[in-house]
Amino acid sequence: MIKKYKVPFIINYDFAEDHSTLCIWCKKENKKNIAHILSKSILISEHNKNKLFATVCENCNSFFGKNIEDWIFKYSPLNYWISKDNKGSIYLKDDRSLIYKQVFLWLKEYNEWFISTNIKGEQFPPQLIFKEDGEIICYNYADGKIQNTIFYFKNFADVIERKDFTTYLSDKLPFNFNPRIIIYDSKYIVVGRDKNDIKKILDCNFNYNEITTSTYLLKQKQHKELLVLYKWSVKKYLKFCAKISFEFLSLFKGPEFVLNDDFDGFRQFLFHDKKDDFTQIPFLSGEGLVKNRLTVNGWVSICDKVKISKSFQLPTFLLPEENKFSFSLVIYKVDSYLCASMKLFEIEVCNIILAQIYEPLGSIYYITYSPSDDCLCFYEGAGEGERIDKELLLVTNEDSAKLIN
Questions:
Q1: 238 with 76: CB under 8 angstroms?
Q2: Which of 118, 211, 366, 380 could be bridged to 12 by S-S, CB 3.0 to 4.6 A?
Q3: Residue 157 phi, psi dihedral angles, 5° rounding
């Protein structure tokens, strides 16, 4: 039987960081610098309560920036959720905001998909497209270099013979995507949905003199039909959520609490486990991300020292689905298990067991961020104090934790 409880919270802005000679991550006396708990990319403006000034060293802060956050904001859909102007639409920019993704853009006026690199000055590479009716069209962005483009493609037979080309195949490309050869950074790339598309190109007996040439223009910034193929790693995202949860925990409980040896397995996972999983997920304008889950369903234990009986059920907080919150996190303790449930943008709730620890937590902590009013709010579980209308629903029907290997 599912049990449900409502837990009241009160606002608490009295949290203050305690100084520590040791870094809360590496536990060494290294030089400290300012560490943002939530990346500055997620917040509209700076919030001092989002910073650790005296407990994270330069080396560890740099490690998270380069190995976790840099990847998350370059390759994953978080960049889209952060920068989108309207729900269901995305704007191509002249900056490098989409440089790390494959972008496929439908231009209605040409009745064709085009590949965009979104690199300023080289946004649309030349594309030799093989149509279903046998027509071959060489498209070049309006930069006056169409003849040079044809010259490049005349060398394609030699390129095939030398096997001096790469291929990009993905069944996530649109069903009506015509296979093509593109030239990028003086390299030839054959792009298609599968090996049949590659064979179609290689078996084609075409005469370069019969190729249709055309220049095309990007007439509008916003496009209703856009496909962006993002990379995704569940394990990278778990590390991202775990890092945020742990640093907020340090703010609430102080460095002495998180320097406990019981968190050493947790630290080991974040710093030394490099067996990340990678997949590719498509974003479609007007539809958003394809409905495949981005996080593990249920509880996740990221430390092999945490053992949970199969008969034991961990209760979980159901974080509010209010659209005004782009971030919410609740940290609490059940028996000896220190738990964190975090929701970011439209990604499903991530439930992580941070450690098995016997020191009492003393309270339940809850944080939200609303971009509409740029408000970062801190709440604490109410005892006999003043109740506020910020109740979370606690349920006890979750499965036992899964161990991420």
A1: no
A2: 380
A3: -60, -40
Burial 390-399 (b: 16+ CB within 10 A, else e): bebebeeeee
Lowest mean pLDDT among 93-102, 180-189, 338-347: 93-102
Q: Do the Cβ atoms of 229 and 172 come closer than 8 Å?
A: yes
For every residue of 82-132, DSSP letters joined together read: HH-SSTT-EE--SSSTTTTSEEEEEETTTTEEEEE---TT-SS--EEEE-T
Token pair listed for 108: 């209605």
Q: pTM of the predicted model, to two decimals?
A: 0.82
| Dihedral (CA of 263, 266, 267, 272) sign | positive
- Residue 205, number of CB atoms within 10 A of its CB: 4
d(CA 223, CA 124) in angstroms, rounded, equals: 15
Pairwise CA distance, residues 73 & 59, whole Å: 20
Q: Specify the residue for token string 């919030």.
A: 47
Q: What is the pLDDT of residue 370?
A: 87
Q: 10 Å Cβ neighbour count for 58? A: 14
- Of 110, 298, 285, 118, the C-alpha closest to 215 is 110
In our burial notation (b when 16+ CB lie closer than 10 A, e otherwise), range 15-51 reads: eebeebebbbbebeebebeebbbbbeebbbeebeebb
User: What secondary structure does DSSP assign to 172-209, as a single string?
Assistant: TS-TTPPPEEEEETTEEEEEESSHHHHHHHHT----GG
Asked whether 37 and 248 are in contact (CB, 8 A), the reply is: yes
pLDDT in tens, 227-281: 888 888 999 999 999 999 999 999 999 999 999 999 999 999 898 877 777 888 8
> In sequence order, which residues have a C-beta less than 8 Å from that of residue 276 and are 6 or more positions away?
233, 235, 236
Q: How many other β-carbons are positioned within 10 Å of the β-carbon of residue 234?
A: 18
Bridge partners, residue 301, by sequence: 353, 403
With tokens 């649109």, the residue in question is 174
Residue whose structure tokens are 């009716």: 133
Of 15, 12, 8, 39, the residue nearest 378 (C-alpha)? 12
pLDDT digits (tens, 9 = 90+) for 163-174: 788 899 988 888
The sign of the CA dihedral 46, 362, 355, 260 is positive
